[in-house]
Amino acid sequence: MNRIDRRRGVADETPRNEQATPPGDGARPVPDPAPDPAPDVVEEGLTSDDEAASVPAGEPVPDVPGAGGGARPGDVAPDAVEDADAAGDAAVRTRVKGAKGARVARARIPSARNARARLADAKAARSEAIRARPGGPGALVPRPAEPEEPAEPVPDPAHDVEQRKLEAGADHRFPFGRPGLPLGRAHPFVFGFTAALGVITAWLLVKAAVSAKSVLIMIVVALFLAIGLNPAVERLKRLGLSRGWAVAAVFFGVLLFLTGFVASLIPPLAEQVADLSKNLPDYINQLRTNPRIARWDQHYHLLQQAQDKINDSKFQQDAARYALDVGKQALTGTFQTLTVLILTLYFLGSLPQIKTFFYQLAPRSRRARVALLGDEILERIGGYVAGQFTIAFIAGVTSYIFLEILGVPYALALALIVAVTDLIPLVGATIGAAVVCLVAFLTGTAEGIAAIVFYVVYQQVENYLVYPRVMKRTVDVQPAVTVVAALIGGTLLGVVGALLAIPTAAAISLIIREVLVPRQESL
């Protein structure tokens, strides 16, 4: 049993024993004591320690003799707590006799209880004050901070091998240290390196495209011809031929056309060159006997200057170099023509596989729509090529009939020239007509004038009747778009660009109408 329990037991036994004394023993019954008017005041028997213990919680503790001097405001004297405990135990254990002793005991027991409660509050306040102080737990007065010893400098891994291994985390698995985190995409070095690599790659691609310009043009022309000849192959397939035989038949027809064109041009050219070399002296004599030319020659010595120019060695070298360049261009043109024909044959034979390959590059969810649009674009390009060949054929046949009626020599060659040049948009028909009119004027003035009238009328019929009826069902492009596309294509790639410009414009207009416009309408 602790102190409080023993004290409570003694205090409770004393009144109980006194009340249990019978009145016959000669002792008078002791009445209950009156309440003390000042229960917190201890009688004169309390010492100074008891006075210190009776201080309310939270108030400053007064100076206690023998406690080693005065306490600071807000502190609780540790000796006062022990003295108060001893005084309370002594008061409980005191034997009280008589009524006066019982009154004194009953007066001291509540005072001791109040002192213990105040002491408990004082301990709690003291603990709170100690926790709030920066000196640490258990310290009433903060100790002065001891000076910290300076830390030893960390060795530089550039000079210390062990420090290197320690900082790098080297072990048996990673003898050279653990690898760090990879550089993220947002790192400035990665971003700059990727951008520079992209620029270099784009520049190399542009340079390669410029270097291979002639090859790329041949590939595009061959693919364009294959797409244009594919409708004829499909018609032959519907008649019962296999695709291989249909391709062979169409390609054989193309070879026949080219062979006839070359055969019709080479003999007249060879004959004209031979006649010119044979009749050149007669032409010079005619110039000399002409009165007007003779008068000009007397004043300006034109014939003498022309003869000196012809006899000049530099002029002869230039003429030989020009003839060599013409031969090179002829060989290059022949080689490019054969290359285009071979590529056209391959593209025409494998056109379904080429279409399937490019359609598979589209996402599976959009592949069907891409295939439908691609088929429509290819059909329009094929229709345009077929329409151009139809218009050129009509122009060639009409020119041949007119030249035969007019009696102009080399009518077949001139008709083929008109048909080939008519394939060029906008200016092709005019170029062919100019060549025919020039030859007609060499034949006679009347023939030349008749040729000019004929081709002016025919151009109007072709532009307003033939061309709209043929092209309306194929490309369906506005006239202004046709003119602009032909001008841009001719500026970029010359004759080839002008040929490819109109079907390209038709494909772009189809994509805009079927893809871009519905998307804008849905927003």
UniProtKB/TrEMBL annotation:
Annotated Acidic residues bias: 41-52
Q: Where are the transmembrane segments?
A: 188-206, 212-233, 245-266, 338-361, 381-402, 408-427, 434-458, 478-511
Q: Where is the composition biased (Basic and acidic residues)?
A: 7-16, 118-131
Q: Where is this region: Disordered?
A: 1-89, 114-158
Keyword check for Magnesium, yes or no: no
Q: Does the keyword Membrane apply?
A: yes
Protein topology in the membrane: Multi-pass membrane protein
User: Where found?
Assistant: Cell membrane
Residue ranges, compositional bias (Low complexity): 55-65
The record's similarity note reads:
Belongs to the autoinducer-2 exporter (AI-2E) (TC 2.A.86) family.
Q: Which InterPro entries match?
A: AI-2E-like (IPR002549)
Question: Which UniProt key words apply to this protein?
Answer: Cell membrane, Membrane, Transmembrane, Transmembrane helix, Transport
Q: Name one Pfam family in it.
A: AI-2E_transport
Q: What is this protein called?
A: AI-2E family transporter
